[in-house]
Request: fold
Amino acid sequence: MPILEPPHKGLSQKDIVFARESASPASRKGGSKKGAFDLQINGNHVPAGSYLSHLVLSCLEFIAEGHPVTVVPVEDEIGTQEAADMLKVSRPYMVKLLDSNALPSRKVGVQRRVKIQDVLDYKAREKEARIKVLEELAAEGQRLNLGE
Reply:
């Protein structure tokens, strides 16, 4: 599958300004932060809240912050460094996750490959676990009247 990359490494100031204006809440229906916006591709209206609408808005928000964007199919595989970058952990920690089977991987020669979807699933599971612990701590704090 092809990887869609920016035509050049850096973003122009014009690109960033356009993305800021396009992704701003004022440019979307109802002006809400999470709301949809009008999107037309080749004259066809893309329904608000659709997968494509969400994808384009997410890309615009990153570009508005000055970050280049690369679109990669989630079934593609990446190396341990790219997986570590996605999880914002070190490569050695990523290798430990793979060694402990927290994430599935396969070897290609001496290198390990990880499916992007598996990395995203792991990230979501970890986020859910963190939220659950925070909720439990908040409930315990309420029970012990620590907020007063």
Summary: The chain has two domains: 13-64, 77-143. The longest strand covers residues 111-115.
